[in-house]
Amino acid sequence: MKDTLTRLKYWYQRASAAGAEYYNAPYRAAIARAKRDEDDLFMLLVFGEMMGIPNPASWYTLELQPLLLERFHDWHKRMGMERSPLDNMRCC
């Protein structure tokens, strides 16, 4: 009995994962694009103060800058800036 329940649970989990994959597949690109846009906006919020954009939450976003430095180069390239827009921070 316990073995049967274990097998049913396993098949139920596999069917659930397959169903989620089937229904999410058409929206995957749109979700990825929305996440990237949201990340770009967050990056602008964090580094905006250094580019001259007033930020009322700059004290809090200052702590996040070291965490986002690895992604900064990709971000400014994606935003159309060939070189780093920050004078005191060169990434390329």
TrEMBL record:
This protein's record includes keyword Nucleotide-binding: yes
Any one GO molecular-function label of the UniProt entry: helicase activity
Keywords: ATP-binding, Helicase, Hydrolase, Nucleotide-binding
Pfam families: DUF7990
InterPro entries: CC_star_Cory (IPR047717), DUF7990 (IPR058303)
Name under which the protein is recorded: DNA helicase
Phylogenetic classification of the source organism: Bacteria, Pseudomonadati, Pseudomonadota, Gammaproteobacteria, Pseudomonadales
